[in-house]
Structure formats: C-alpha cells, structure tokens
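Fold this sequence, please.
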Amino acid sequence: MSGNSSTFDNVLGETFGSFDHLVRLRVSYNNKPFSNGCDFRPSSVVNRPRVEVGGDDLRVFYTLVMIDLDAPNPSNPTLKEYLHWLVTDIPATTDASFGHELIKYESPHPTTGIHRIVFALLRQFKRNSVSKPELRENFNTRTFAQVNNLSSPVAAAYFNCQREAGSGGRKFSI
C-alpha cells in the first residue's frame, strides 16, 4: 500500500500505537487495489473487499479487523471504534475468504463528515482461539487483541469514506 506515510502513521498510531509492518496486506474493492488515504463513496464499498495476506508460513494464521475510527461522526466519534468486519484464522499467503468470518461485512455508509476506515491484520498465536465480540460499537482493537492473545498489528491499510453527496477530502494530518 502506498500513500502519505506520515498521515498513515498518524491515523494508525492513534488506534494501535507504534507497530512494525511485517506482512504484506493488499486490499481491493471491485478488483482495484487502493492506496492509503484514498477517498471512497459508500457505493464503491458496498461489496466485501478482497483482502490478500502475505507471509511465507502456511502454519501462521491472522485475524483481520475493519473498523471506523469516526463513527457516528468525526466531530463526536462516540461509537469509535465501530467494527465493520472481523475474519479470523486466515492462513498466511492466502486471502480473507480462507478465514472464518466472525462478524459479517457491513459496508461503511457515513452520513456526516469524512470517516477513516482501517483494516488491521493481527497475528494469532493459536488457531480457533478468537472469540466473537458482543457488539460492533465501541470495539477496541487493542483490548480485543489482548483478550484473544493476538499480536499488535503486523500490517494495516486505510481509506477515507464520506456520504455520496459529500465533497472534498481529508487534507489535514490527524
């Protein structure tokens, strides 16, 4: 994933703290990969994306989380982090379709402001060990990782999403 490295680090650091990008993560909507910080409208992200995971050892498994950092609106993100998708037990060198979908994909549909939608890949230390969270709202990736014995992120990507009639893009550092 390419994009403005400083903004990328700021967006992801806000949620995960510092972490090393150890595994390749490629996310594409409608067979088109995106670069970090790009803008999407809800109509472009209706269908579940293809998420390809790197690595070199098929005995290693990952958990993928997709969250909205700005729900319900960027000025007052009271539902932060909102969980849009959760897939566990993804073998290295495959894609999310080889994993176990614990939380079904819910496409982002912001009604106010520009929302930062983040994909994070966490390494599992044991297969079939991740519990399904009770709620999508107020999900906390760090706490979830600790409770389920997951690593901090080994890869991440994000895009901005705003309502269909919205204008402009996020042009400032977070």
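The longest helix spans residues 5-16. The CA atoms of residues 65 and 86 lie 5 Å apart.
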